[in-house]
């Protein structure tokens, strides 16, 4: 059974940093693109970042470029999102997803972790 | 960036109704279009990928179609468990983008 479990969310002050983790199991993690998507309270879904199976390619939405870094450790079956210079508008539930290779769709989602940026 | 314009933003429907949701891409995305269902407080669930392929385990009352840059999600006979918000998403090019969502209530 595919499982994705996020952790690391919490309350942080504007300008602060946070590192999210996503523990994957039930599939060959090193073979799949992975992604982070976020959802602000009461709002729609927003893609944040993608990473290639070997970590050699990374893509970001413009609003987080230079502040967020996606990474992975295939030996630990883990995905990460390092978030720096956090802003109030980064407040959201952050989901990690597996990307189905042929269709490029998000076929499995974690339960999400809430990040609140507030003073 | 490719904009995904979803309509309507909400639809009022009853059990047994046929419901149609449309998503228009601002430029060609071939069939790189997926549909997701999200219930309140829950995680989004993949329904349709490749514009018209049904994800495993998804009831056959859900279907997707495409015509150029217009994509449609149809629920042939609305069931009580289908009341939710639906999102389209393109994976043709970066940045990946979602539609604004359609709430079926």
- What is the H/E string of chain B? EEEEEEEEEEE
β-sheet strand percentage of chain B: over 45%
Order of helices and strands of chain A: EEEEEEEEEEE
* Rough outline of chain A: globular
**Quaternary class:** heterodimer
Average the pLDDT over all residues of chain B and give the rounded result: 97
Structural class of chain B: mainly beta
Number of DSSP helical runs of chain B: 0
Helix content class of chain A: under 10%
Q: Bin the strand percentage of chain A.
A: over 45%
Largest sheet of chain A: 7 strands, mixed
List the helices and strands and how they pair.
The complex is a heterodimer of chains A (119) and B (105).
Chain A: E1 3-7, E2 10-12, E3 18-25, E4 34-39, E5 45-51, E6 58-60, E7 68-73, E8 78-83, E9 92-99, E10 106-109, E11 113-117
Parallel strand pairs in A: 2-11
Antiparallel strand pairs in A: 1-3, 3-8, 4-5, 4-9, 5-6, 7-8, 9-10, 9-11
Chain B: E1 4-7, E2 10-11, E3 19-25, E4 33-38, E5 45-49, E6 53-54, E7 62-67, E8 70-75, E9 85-90, E10 97-98, E11 102-104
Parallel strand pairs in B: 2-11
Antiparallel strand pairs in B: 1-3, 3-8, 4-5, 4-9, 5-6, 7-8, 9-10, 9-11
Architecture overview:
- The complex is a heterodimer of chains A (119) and B (105).
- In chain A, 0% of the residues lie in helices and 51% in strands.
- Chain A has no helices and eleven strands.
- Chain A has strands at 3-7, 10-12, 18-25, 34-39, 45-51, 58-60, 68-73, 78-83, 92-99, 106-109, 113-117.
- In chain A, the strands form two sheets. In chain A, strands 2, 4, 5, 6, 9, 10 and 11 form a seven-stranded mixed beta sheet that branches.
- The model of chain A has no long low-confidence stretch (mean pLDDT 97).
- Chain B is mainly beta and 105 residues long.
- Chain B is 0% helix and 47% strand.
- Chain B is built from no helices and eleven strands.
- In chain B, strands 2, 4, 5, 6, 9, 10 and 11 form a seven-stranded mixed beta sheet that branches.
- In chain B, strand 7 (62-67) and strand 8 form a beta hairpin.
- Classes of the chains: A mainly beta (119), B mainly beta (105).
